[in-house]
């Protein structure tokens, strides 16, 4: 895409120089978290352990994306569920009745099979070398790029966590207040700009009607809809999400941003929806009720390239939270099980 090279150069420049800047009255960091310091560009190539790892991952993601474009949103959600709980250590990928994957907040997570496929390919070419945590970060980068985001550089060298507990999962619901959302991000090492920027990923996906039922029919137990939702959106969503389901009827899903046909393209329409009070989720609409986040909504709605650039940076920041490196953790042979519990390694 025209201008993409310059945008990536700018992202790399601000990261390298450790700059920071103001958006409106908000001071926003544009450096990666301190945990990211051990991570490196082309980590496996420099060690001569898996020179073509990125090409292998890109190829597999593209094959999948060409058949199922919803994979982008699924992978982004998977990375969020991993990094925003106990850091980017691939612990969300571990199977088990009491793992993070089994937590109620992670019900409906998808994309695991593609990660398994990529891991199988890499184990054939570079055995016990590339971590599942790195695979997930690379796969997300490639998937969002195919959808229209920039192909930002991913620093590598993460290692995989040795445990995963459902009790760790503290991911908030989509009905949280703006203040609670900002506080949650701050507790993880991210800021208000990351919050407003990463919510823009909602331009890619869907949600179940159950997540917005209160906004449509009983907002804050008033028996009325959320007054911050436009009438046109309310009428449309009520048609898609009935007040009550028939016996045996599955909970329907709706696109979070539907102005681009199939709803799986990376655009800035999400921010236009916020401005016109057409957001599906309350957490998205609430961006308009804070000075700093409103300024970002206005900027991103009017400047798509700026949104693309800042999205790349915020994804890099999230993907660097509490990473394991060096001799910490392990390189899993199978992303779904630790090496200690892998019967094939005994």
TrEMBL record:
Listed name of the protein: Peroxidase
Entry binding sites for Ca(2+) 2: 203, 258
Binding site for substrate: 172
Record-listed heme b binding positions: 202
Domain Plant heme peroxidase family profile: from-to ranges: 38-339
Cystine pairs: 50-126, 83-88, 132-335, 209-241
Binding residues for Ca(2+) 1: 82, 85, 87, 89, 91, 100
Similarity comment: Belongs to the peroxidase family. Classical plant (class III) peroxidase subfamily.
GO terms assigned for molecular function: heme binding; lactoperoxidase activity; metal ion binding
CDD domains: secretory_peroxidase
């Amino acid at each position: 895409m025209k201008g993409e090279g310059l945008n990536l150069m700018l992202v790399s420049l601000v990261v390298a120089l450790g700059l920071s800047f103001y958006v409106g009255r908000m001071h926003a960091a544009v450096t990666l978290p301190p945990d990211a310091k051990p991570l490196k560009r082309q980590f496996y190539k420099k060690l001569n352990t898996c020179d073509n790892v990125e090409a292998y991952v890109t190829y597999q993601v593209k094959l999948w994306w060409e058949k199922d474009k919803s994979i982008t949103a699924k992978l982004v959600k998977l990375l969020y569920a991993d990094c925003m709980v106990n850091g980017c250590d691939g612990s969300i990928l571990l199977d088990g009745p009491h793992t993070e994957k089994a937590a109620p907040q992670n019900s409906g997570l998808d994309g695991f099979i593609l990660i398994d496929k990529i891991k199988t390919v890499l184990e054939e070419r570079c055995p016990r070398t590339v971590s599942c945590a790195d695979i997930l970060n690379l796969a997300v980068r490639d998937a969002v790029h195919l959808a229209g985001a920039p192909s930002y550089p991913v620093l590598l060298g993460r290692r995989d966590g040795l445990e995963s507990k459902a009790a760790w999962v503290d991911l908030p619901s989509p009905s949280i207040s703006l203040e609670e959302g900002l506080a949650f991000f701050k507790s993880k090492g991210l800021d208000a700009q990351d919050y407003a920027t990463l919510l823009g990923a909602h331009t890619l996906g869907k949600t179940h009607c159950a997540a917005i039922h209160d906004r449509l029919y009983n907002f804050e137990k008033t028996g009325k809809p959320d007054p911050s939702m436009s009438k046109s959106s309310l009428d449309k969503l009520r048609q898609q999400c009935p007040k009550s389901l028939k016996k045996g009827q599955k909970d329907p899903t709706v696109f979070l941003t539907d102005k681009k046909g199939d709803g799986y393209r990376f655009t800035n329409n999400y921010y236009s929806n916020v401005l016109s009070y057409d957001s599906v989720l309350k957490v998205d609409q609430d961006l308009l009720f804070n000075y700093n986040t409103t300024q970002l909504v206005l900027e991103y709605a009017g400047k798509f390239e700026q949104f693309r650039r800042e999205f790349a940076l915020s994804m890099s920041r999230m993907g660097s939270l509490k990473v394991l490196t060096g001799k910490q953790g392990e390189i899993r042979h199978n992303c779904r099980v630790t090496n200690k519990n892998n019967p094939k390694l005994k």
